Amino acid sequence: MDRRGLLRSFLRFREKYGDVFTVYLGPRPVVMLCGVEAIREALVDNAEAFSGRGKIAITDPVFQGYGVVFANGNRWKVLRRFSLTTMRDFGMGKRSVEERIQEEAQCLIEELRKSKGALVDPTFLFHSITANIICSIVFGKRFHYQDQEFLKILNLFYHTFSLASSMFGQLFELLSGFLKYFPGAHRQVYKNLQEINAYIGHSRAARETGVFTARLQPPPLCPSLLWTQEKSNPHSEFSHRNLIINTLSLFFAGTETTSTTLRYGFLLMLKYPHVAERIYKEIEQVIGPHRPPALDDRAKMPYTEAVIHEIQRFADLLPMGVPHIVTQQTSFRGYIIPKDTEVFPLLSTALHDPHYFEKPDTFNPDHFLDANGALKKNEAFIPFSLGRRMCLGEGIARNELFLFFTTILQNFSVASPVAPEDIDLTPQESGVGKIPPTYQIRFLPR
């Protein structure tokens, strides 16, 4: 195995063994899928067989197959339907989520104005705005950026994602059966997630007893009516534990991913200032300086859309995907894969495929533009994965990225104390997730 991480090892094995091969992670055989063709053939063409969810060793002691991300079988179907319905009722894809994101973007603009062009670390600001969208859905309220309890929870998320993506997190994936008996980062991950669960449980109870005054009605993911109806059913999946872990899943997935993408995005704007200026020119032409950006603007802003796509591709946020398992014995590309075998769809191999992206290791928005400057679709662009287990929040995430990105650049130019050519894009951690390096940025009012 390559000491620089699991992904590097798997990419080296691919050169020797092709797009489908088995690696033993400790005692567990795991099938690796490389390239968009193999991933699509498995997750889309054989969707039912590959629809099971595997485990991430360092977080499994908390999730244990509960919540929509890591559930399987009937539990997953019930929680997926519940989560999709409640997000849709709240406004996933409708005007209300757009208005909520626009409102949060304006709150961020006011906060950035207070910095008066001083250097800031944007990490927790970007965490706060994405977390507040989830808080609107879950608790029916948003939190101030200086709220100490809110910042503590965001720090726990950030710390947990960093530990899970660290070299220890990757080593734990191989040797969890042995390492779990010893001190290490896995114990801190467990403690962090349990602390977040306690907060969610307390907040949900407070919401149901009317302690919170909801600004947005109804707060669909904490529905006391549903709770009352279902808790008398001994076979119901709406147990206390499932609802808490489901909320944790949505929080983790909805906060960490989008905020990390924004952090990578603005680091890239510092590295390539001409890209940021070209986006601003498009904002000037389509939106102007005064009206807040809206989702309807997206169709008229192909360059901005191409840049956001390229940020997601280049950031390669979940390079190894989230593990799957096969739900039945499956024949795939001449191999027999036994039931319950884990499968890793290596999304990074699609996002860096030289057959689909001319310069896969270079940040280049032209990857998503045709000869006429229009946005073009690319089959290998699968940052949200594919098939039945693809990201539930893709719609909300894409809306957030567009509205937050354009609103910030409409109001501010960005600057760094480091010369563009000296800005290092090397990830701070690269394991389960890729985490950009920390950096300082100035937001200068236009």
UniProtKB/TrEMBL annotation:
<dbReference type="InterPro" id="IPR002401">
    <property type="entry name" value="Cyt_P450_E_grp-I"/>
</dbReference>
<keyword id="KW-0479">Metal-binding</keyword>
<dbReference type="GO" id="GO:0008390">
    <property type="term" value="F:testosterone 16-alpha-hydroxylase activity"/>
</dbReference>
<protein>
    <submittedName>
        <fullName>Cytochrome P450 family 2 subfamily B member 6</fullName>
    </submittedName>
</protein>
<dbReference type="GO" id="GO:0062189">
    <property type="term" value="F:anandamide 14,15 epoxidase activity"/>
</dbReference>
<dbReference type="InterPro" id="IPR008068">
    <property type="entry name" value="Cyt_P450_E_grp-I_CYP2B-like"/>
</dbReference>
<dbReference type="GO" id="GO:0008202">
    <property type="term" value="P:steroid metabolic process"/>
</dbReference>
<dbReference type="GO" id="GO:0062187">
    <property type="term" value="F:anandamide 8,9 epoxidase activity"/>
</dbReference>
<dbReference type="InterPro" id="IPR017972">
    <property type="entry name" value="Cyt_P450_CS"/>
</dbReference>
<dbReference type="GO" id="GO:0042178">
    <property type="term" value="P:xenobiotic catabolic process"/>
</dbReference>
<dbReference type="InterPro" id="IPR036396">
    <property type="entry name" value="Cyt_P450_sf"/>
</dbReference>
<keyword id="KW-0503">Monooxygenase</keyword>
<dbReference type="GO" id="GO:0042180">
    <property type="term" value="P:ketone metabolic process"/>
</dbReference>
<dbReference type="InterPro" id="IPR001128">
    <property type="entry name" value="Cyt_P450"/>
</dbReference>
<dbReference type="GO" id="GO:0101021">
    <property type="term" value="F:estrogen 2-hydroxylase activity"/>
</dbReference>
<dbReference type="GO" id="GO:0008392">
    <property type="term" value="F:arachidonate epoxygenase activity"/>
</dbReference>
<keyword id="KW-0472">Membrane</keyword>
<dbReference type="GO" id="GO:0020037">
    <property type="term" value="F:heme binding"/>
</dbReference>
<dbReference type="GO" id="GO:0062184">
    <property type="term" value="F:testosterone 16-beta-hydroxylase activity"/>
</dbReference>
<dbReference type="GO" id="GO:0005506">
    <property type="term" value="F:iron ion binding"/>
</dbReference>
<dbReference type="GO" id="GO:0019373">
    <property type="term" value="P:epoxygenase P450 pathway"/>
</dbReference>
<keyword id="KW-0349">Heme</keyword>
<dbReference type="Pfam" id="PF00067">
    <property type="entry name" value="p450"/>
</dbReference>
<dbReference type="GO" id="GO:0062188">
    <property type="term" value="F:anandamide 11,12 epoxidase activity"/>
</dbReference>
<keyword id="KW-0560">Oxidoreductase</keyword>
<keyword id="KW-0256">Endoplasmic reticulum</keyword>
<feature type="binding site" description="axial binding residue">
    <location>
        <position position="391"/>
    </location>
    <ligand>
        <name>heme</name>
    </ligand>
</feature>
<keyword id="KW-0492">Microsome</keyword>
<dbReference type="InterPro" id="IPR050182">
    <property type="entry name" value="Cytochrome_P450_fam2"/>
</dbReference>
<dbReference type="GO" id="GO:0005789">
    <property type="term" value="C:endoplasmic reticulum membrane"/>
</dbReference>
<comment type="similarity">
    <text>Belongs to the cytochrome P450 family.</text>
</comment>
<keyword id="KW-0408">Iron</keyword>
